[in-house]
Write a structure and sequence with these properties.
The chain has 409 residues and is an alpha/beta fold. The protein contains eleven helices and nine strands. Helix 5 crosses helix 9, helix 6 runs parallel beside helix 7 and helix 7 packs across helix 8. It is elongated, with a radius of gyration of 44 Å.
C-alpha cells in the first residue's frame, strides 16, 4: 500500500473517528428510545448495532405461536415410575397404607436412629417408623418428661404398634431424687433406682406382647463421660435381658481398634465416613443409618412372620401376572394340573442319557459283526497293509490336500 494511502487510513480511523462514532451511537440509541422503537430480541452486541445502524439487519423473527403452545404442553412420559404402584395418593397407582408400625422412644440420640430406620425401610411403604423421641429427656427426670406414663399410653394402642425401639442414656447421668434424698449417679442406690425405671418402661410393652429392642449407647468423646456410659450400658443390658427384651450392643461398631471413641468409620456400604457429630455424642445421618442397621434384621424377621402367606395379592398387576405365569409353568413341568379340576398334562418320560458309544470297543460292520478282511473293498488290501502295517503314506490322489503335482508346460 502506498504511503499516502496508509496516511489517509490512519487519519480516517484515528481517535477522532472513534470518538465521533461513539457520540453518534449514543445519539442513535437515545433517538430510538424516545421514538419508542422496540429493542431487538436477538443480534446483541456490535454486530446487531451495525446491522441496524447501516440498515443491513432484519431484526428478530416474531415468535411462533405454535411453538409456544407445544412448549407449554406437558411432556408425556413414556414410562410409569415403579413407586407409582405403591405410594399412597399416586395417580394411577394403588395406595399402600402402612400395616406395620415401629415406635422409637428415647432421647435426641434415639431420634437419629429413627431417621436411620426410616431410610432403611424407605422401599417398604407398608412399614411406618414413628418418631416418639424427646430431646433432653431420659429416665431420671420424670418431672421433665414422664417416660413411664408415656410408655403406658403408647402400649395401650397396641393395634398400631408392632415393634418398639428404645434408646436412653445421654441425659441420665444425673442425680435421682428418692424422697428427700438425691442419689449420686452410679452409686449403689442410684443403680437400683435406675434399674427399676428401666423395668418400668419395658413392662407395658412386654405385657402387651410387643417386641422391644433396647439399643445401647455408643462410645463418647469425653473420657469421663465415656466411662460412665460403659457402666450405664451394663445396667441396661442386665435389666433388658432379664425382662426378656432384646439388647442391641453397637459399641464396637462405633469404636476404634482400642474400643474408644472414633468419629469416623465404615458406613452401611463399607465406605469410611463421618459417623459422629461435632459434639462427640450424637450421630451424623450416616451414623444414624448405621445404628439402624443393627435393628433392621430383627424388624424384618418379625415383619415377614406377621405377613400373610398369600403376599402376592399386594403386588402390582404386572408382577402378579408374571408370578402366575411362572407358577403355571412350574406346575406344567412338574405334571400337576394348572387349575383345580383341570386334567394333568404329563410330559413324555425322557431317557436319562442319549446313545452311549464305547471309546475302546472294536469297530463293527454295518450288520453288527466284527470287521474282517472280507469286508474290505477290493483293491484296498495293499493300501491298508502299506499304510497301517508298514507306516508309509498313502498315494496322493488328484485334488486332495496331499497332491502337490501341477501341470507342466
Amino acid at each position: 500500500m502506498a504511503p499516502l494511502a496508509r496516511l489517509r487510513m490512519k487519519f480516517a480511523f484515528g481517535p477522532r473517528f472513534f470518538s465521533r462514532f461513539a457520540r453518534l451511537a449514543v445519539v442513535a440509541t437515545l433517538a430510538a428510545a424516545l421514538d419508542g422503537a422496540p429493542a431487538p430480541a436477538q443480534d446483541s452486541g456490535f454486530g446487531g448495532f451495525f446491522q441496524q445502524f447501516f440498515g443491513g439487519g432484519q431484526g428478530a423473527k416474531p415468535p411462533d405461536p405454535n411453538a409456544q403452545k407445544q412448549a407449554a404442553k406437558k411432556k408425556v412420559r413414556d414410562f410409569v415410575p415403579a413407586t407409582a404402584t405403591r405410594e399412597p395418593g399416586t395417580p394411577g397407582g394403588a395406595a399402600v397404607l402402612p400395616t406395620f408400625f415401629i415406635e422409637v422412644v428415647g432421647d435426641s440420640l434415639a431420634s437419629f436412629t429413627a431417621g436411620g430406620l426410616s431410610e432403611a425401610f424407605a422401599d417398604k411403604p407398608e412399614i411406618a417408623v414413628v418418631d416418639k423421641t424427646h430431646d433432653a429427656s431420659g429416665l431420671v427426670r420424670s418431672d421433665y418428661y414422664d417416660w413411664q406414663k408415656a410408655a403406658g399410653d403408647l402400649a395401650g394402642d397396641k393395634d398400631h404398634i408392632n415393634f418398639v425401639v428404645m434408646m436412653f442414656g445421654i441425659n441420665d447421668l444425673q442425680a435421682i431424687r428418692d424422697g428427700a434424698d438425691n442419689l449420686d449417679p452410679l452409686s449403689d442406690r442410684w443403680k437400683a433406682a435406675y434399674a427399676a425405671r428401666v423395668d418400668a418402661i419395658l413392662a407395658p410393652f412386654l405385657s402387651a406382647n410387643i417386641p422391644v429392642a433396647w439399643v445401647g449407647m455408643p462410645p463418647m468423646r469425653v473420657e469421663k463421660f465415656n466411662d460412665q456410659i460403659v457402666k450405664l450400658n451394663e445396667i441396661d443390658r442386665e435389666e433388658v435381658e432379664k425382662a426378656g427384651a432384646k439388647y442391641i450392643d453397637i459399641w464396637d461398631a462405633f469404636a476404634n481398634q482400642n474400643g474408644q471413641f472414633d468419629a469416623f468409620g465404615p458406613n452401611v456400604d463399607g465406605q469410611t465416613v463421618k459417623l459422629r457429630g461435632p459434639d462427640g455424642i450424637h450421630f451424623t445421618k450416616a451414623g444414624g443409618r448405621k445404628a439402624a442397621h443393627f435393628i433392621e434384621a430383627d424388624i424384618r424377621r418379625i415383619f415377614d412372620k406377621d405377613r400373610p402367606l398369600n403376599a402376592g395379592t399386594d403386588l402390582p398387576p404386572d408382577i402378579e401376572q408374571a408370578a402366575g405365569d411362572i407358577n403355571s409353568q412350574i406346575r406344567h413341568e412338574a405334571g400337576a394340573p394348572d387349575e383345580p379340576g383341570a386334567p394333568a398334562r404329563l410330559e413324555p418320560v425322557k431317557p436319562l442319557s442319549g446313545p452311549i458309544l464305547s471309546l475302546t470297543g472294536r469297530p463293527t460292520s454295518p450288520n453288527g459283526l466284527l470287521a474282517k478282511s472280507a469286508d474290505i473293498p477290493p483293491g484296498q488290501t495293499d493300501v491298508i497293509a502299506k499304510v497301517l502295517r508298514q507306516g508309509e503314506p498313502a498315494d496322493p490322489r488328484g485334488g486332495r490336500a496331499d497332491d502337490f503335482s501341477w501341470p507342466r508346460l
